[in-house]
UniProtKB/TrEMBL annotation:
It comes from Deinococcus rufus. PANTHER family: HTH-TYPE TRANSCRIPTIONAL REGULATOR MLRA-RELATED (PTHR30204:SF67), REDOX-CYCLING DRUG-SENSING TRANSCRIPTIONAL ACTIVATOR SOXR (PTHR30204). Coiled coil: none annotated. This is B12-binding domain-containing protein. The keyword Ribosomal protein does not apply. Keywords: DNA-binding, Transcription, Transcription regulation. CDD domains: HTH_MlrA-CarA (cd01104). The keyword Transcription regulation applies. PROSITE patterns: B12_BINDING (PS51332), HTH_MERR_2 (PS50937).
Length: 312
């Protein structure tokens, strides 16, 4: 018998060690164990779960499927079958303009099954962040434009937004590593801003880069946000402003973040159209899309970490 084969089945990792290696919280591991029959930990003398290298491999495979947008049930089936996610080959992706048009039509026709299928097609061929920037964002822009032109009702827009929010929530949860070490970014919509999806995309992009993000959502008073960021020991604040309706409250409350001494990164459609607004609000413009913003924030946090190490 191959001794290395025995080692792959030897229970040797605690739940916290598996969480550190894979980024999957221990609570999620227990849910997968109950629902899907894996991983298959054994109990030590004290009753604690111990995981084998094979378990760790399966956990990583499940996580990879989820990050590509595969539903949890299907991801479990693929994992148990030993099927890895298909690598993305440049130049072989679908026609994203066609995907955007078809997804827009499906959502406005309330054909959510078709919407799921189209996003599944996108995730099967494109990296997650390309799905965000080339499919989901343009779809949201097109739906918003149709509402502004009076071609659809606000109910149509709300249903489409709710569908896309649910998909983004699933991806955010799959990428979350709440117990992981490293800096924490607090992500919030500015006062008066209720459009969350752009901020959700940034949260997802940051989590995929190993950054912990506390997503606090819509219409956040900056005084409360400052208290929260201080209590959580945050390293930065990311603030989303999509329209000019968010500007009066942000201008009036911006001083509430000054005492934190933290970098404030600003993004969203309003700041994209008016980048100099970031200087006025004593922040840093994070860039025109989630992937770019995440890269800018990660680089800034890295420099800040280096500065702190030099000071100690």
């Amino acid at each position: 018998m191959d001794p290395h084969s025995d080692l792959t089945h030897t229970a040797m990792y605690t739940a916290s060690e598996v969480e550190s290696r894979t980024g999957v919280p221990a609570t999620t591991l227990r849910q997968w164990e109950r629902r899907y029959g894996f991983p298959r930990p054994v109990r030590n003398a004290n009753g604690y779960r111990l995981y084998s290298p094979e378990d760790v491999t399966e956990i990583g495979r499940m996580q990879s499927h989820l990050l590509m947008g595969v539903s949890a049930g299907r991801a479990a089936e693929l994992t148990l079958a030993g099927i890895d996610p298909h690598p993305v080959t440049p130049g072989t992706g679908p026609n994203t303009l066609r995907l955007v048009a078809d997804l827009t039509t499906a959502l406005l026709d309330s054909d959510l099954a078709r919407g799921h299928a189209l996003l599944g097609e996108a995730h099967a061929h494109l990296p997650v962040e390309d799905v965000l920037t080339q499919v989901i964002s343009p779809t949201l822009i097109e739906i918003g434009a149709r509402w502004e032109r009076g071609e659809i009702t606000v109910t149509h827009e709300h249903q489409a937004t709710a569908f896309l929010r649910s998909r983004l929530n699933a991806l955010m949860d799959a990428a979350d590593s709440p117990g992981a070490p490293g800096p924490l970014v607090v992500a919030a919509c500015a006062p008066g801003e209720r459009h969350e999806l752009g901020l959700m995309m940034l949260t997802l992009a940051l989590r995929r880069r190993g950054v912990r993000v506390a997503f606090v959502g819509a219409d956040s008073p900056l005084g409360d946000l400052g208290v929260y960021a201080r209590q959580r020991g945050a390293a930065a604040v990311a603030l989303g402003l999509q329209g000019d309706w968010a500007l009066p409250g942000t201008r009036a409350q911006r001083a509430d973040l000054d005492d934190l001494g933290l970098p404030v990164f600003l993004g969203g459609a309003l700041v994209d159209a008016w980048p100099e607004l970031a200087d006025e609000l004593r922040g840093t413009y994070a860039g025109p899309d989630a992937a770019t913003a995440a890269d800018i924030i990660v680089r800034a946090l890295g420099r800040a970490g280096g500065d702190r190490q030099e000071d100690t």
